[in-house]
Amino acid sequence: MILPIVAYGDPVLRKVGKEIDAAYPELEKLIADMKETMYNAQGVGLAAPQIGRAIRLFLIDASPFADDEDLNEEEREVLKGFNKVFINAKIVKEEGEEWAFNEGCLSIPDVREDVFRQESVTVEYQDENFEQHTETFTGLAARVFQHEYDHIEGVLFTDKLSSLKKRLIKKKLENISKGKVNSGYRMRFPNAKRK
């Protein structure tokens, strides 16, 4: 089932997600619905807060990036297979030079900005079967992970922008929260006027 994506301005996007366990109600269905929602919106990641649930769950399918001609063959191969569910994720270590990349977010349609993030992250998480993993991601895989991880920490990519950039996009963000945007997918707006 395609779920509405929560728009910028909704308080759930600012909550730190709670850890979950295998007893979380209808988790398998929730993950399936989140995948369908992400693919419908042509996203490469979706976090539970973006569908209104303040829990530590997100999923990533970075395979669309595998077609990027600017990447080396090794990175394209990594991205091709980077399709994972992350439960109760924790960043253990961030390393490397910060680098900029133009990011967007399904909760903030029509806003794209360069965001600086570190080049490598070592993470611990559980998969959908609650098996424990420790992995290191680099490059675009690390970036997509950090973006989705921020969601379960109540952080948005716009928080990482300079104060000047924030002022420049302020009106756009206000319009998004009021529902004055055409995303092309189902959304839930916190401050939309009811008709």
Strand order of the largest sheet: 2-3-4-5-6
The DSSP helix count reads 4
Topology as a string of helices (H) and strands (E):
EHEEHEEEHHE
Average pLDDT for all residues: 95
The gross shape turns out to be: globular
The CATH superfamily label reads: Peptide deformylase
How does the major sheet shape up? 5 strands, antiparallel
Structural class: alpha+beta
What is the count of structural domains?
Answer: 1
- Annotated CATH topology: Peptide Deformylase
CATH architecture: Alpha-Beta Complex
- Percentage of residues assigned to helices: 25-40%
**DSSP strand content:** 25-35%
What's the β-strand tally? 7
Distance between the termini: 25 Å
Residue stretches low in confidence (pLDDT < 50, at least 5 long) are: none
Verbal overview:
The structure is a single chain. The protein has 195 residues and is α+β, with helices and mostly antiparallel strands. The protein has a single domain (5-188), classed as Peptide deformylase (Peptide Deformylase), CATH 3.90.45.10. It contains 4 helices and 7 strands; from the N terminus they run βαββαβββααβ. The strands form 2 sheets. A 5-stranded antiparallel beta sheet has the order 2-3-4-5-6. It is globular and about 45 Å long.
